[in-house]
Design brief:
Layout lengths: L1 E3 L13 E9 L7 E2 L22 E19 L1 E4 L6 E9 L5 E11 L10 E20 L12 E4 L1 E2 L15 E5 L6 E4 L14 E6 L13 E3 L11 E3 L3 E7 L2 E6 L10 H5 L11
Parallel strand pairs: 1-8
Antiparallel strand pairs: 2-13, 2-15, 2-16, 3-10, 4-8, 4-11, 4-13, 5-9, 6-7, 6-8, 11-12, 14-15, 16-17
Length: 285
């Protein structure tokens, strides 16, 4: 996994530190097969959730959450090829409009193509400022306006779970996946399933990492265990929590360590309190 724009310093000095729990939200179980879905028609090139013949430029996925939390990072899985390593995508967080489509942008960050993981892994991006959310929100991957040159040889797309992975009950959620059409002026969002000629029952591999209340650490969720009710959608769709990651912070906005506990350590808080097994990571300016 590539860790982008995050400063990860392995320090064991954790005096006056707080423990932060990061839960990764998914709409399908971790470990599910992913695909990079192409258009099947001979006169259409590109990916249904990426660079394509219609120049769709941004793809957003809606999540529901009960209570207040903060989005600290976003993970996503992309595939494809590029010829321009200094071109960029952006990941972002949006409010939800009354009509169920993305509204105001709450935060985001741009990433060079050369910093993307395209070999089957995840790219993780730390937002410059954590974004407070409640109730519902979107996370997105924006391929920008590539219709006017400068992107020759670039064909990237967001991966998804396999066709049929989206529950039939969830099809009533308008805007579960939203797509931004190429348009000058106002941003033109549409529902991916009903308004984009892409009636595929899929979810995108875009996952927000939520930071919970720093005064309490939840060890309830792990990869492959569904949590119904903790993050309710109108139809009680299960939202899957990946293994929680933990942060130990010493000063405001200074990350001094990171730990992802193994499965057998979920109920062992002594290791967290002792600050053991901290690991550094890659940093990018």
């Amino acid at each position: 996994m590539k860790k982008v724009f995050g400063i990860y310093i392995g320090l064991l000095c954790i005096f006056s530190s707080s423990v932060f729990s990061l839960d990764t939200l998914r709409l399908f179980p971790g470990g599910s097969d992913l695909e990079l879905r192409k258009y099947a028609e001979s006169d259409r090139w590109g990916y249904v959730a990426g660079h394509n013949y219609a120049y769709r430029q941004q793809f957003a996925q809606k999540y529901f959450h009960s209570g207040v939390a903060f989005i600290d990072e976003i993970e996503f899985s992309l595939g494809g090829v590029f010829a321009n390593p200094k071109n960029r995508i952006e990941v972002a967080v949006f409010q939800v409009r009354p009509d169920g489509l993305p509204g105001n942008k709450l935060g985001g960050r741009e990433i060079f193509y050369e910093d993307l993981e395209l070999n089957g892994g995840l790219t993780r991006v730390a937002l410059p400022t954590k974004v407070q959310i409640s109730d519902s929100f979107f996370v997105s991957v924006n391929f920008k306006d590539y219709a006017h040159g400068g992107y020759e040889g670039d064909t990237l797309g967001v991966k998804s779970c396999l066709e049929g992975c989206r529950d039939s009950l969830d099809l009533s959620v308008f805007g579960r996946i939203a797509v931004q059409r190429h348009k000058h002026g106002d941003i033109d969002w549409r529902d991916f399933f009903t308004q984009n000629s892409t009636p595929f029952r899929i979810y995108l591999a875009i996952y927000p990492l939520l930071e919970k209340d720093p005064t309490s650490v939840s060890l309830a969720g792990h990869q492959g265990i569904s949590s119904k009710g903790a993050f309710p959608a109108p139809q009680n769709l299960a939202v899957y929590l990946s293994q929680p990651a933990f942060r130990l912070k010493h000063l405001p906005n200074l990350l001094i360590g990171r730990e992802t506990p193994e499965f057998n350590d979920f109920r062992n808080r002594q290791a967290l309190r002792a600050g053991q097994r901290l690991q550094g990571g890659n940093s990018h300016p």
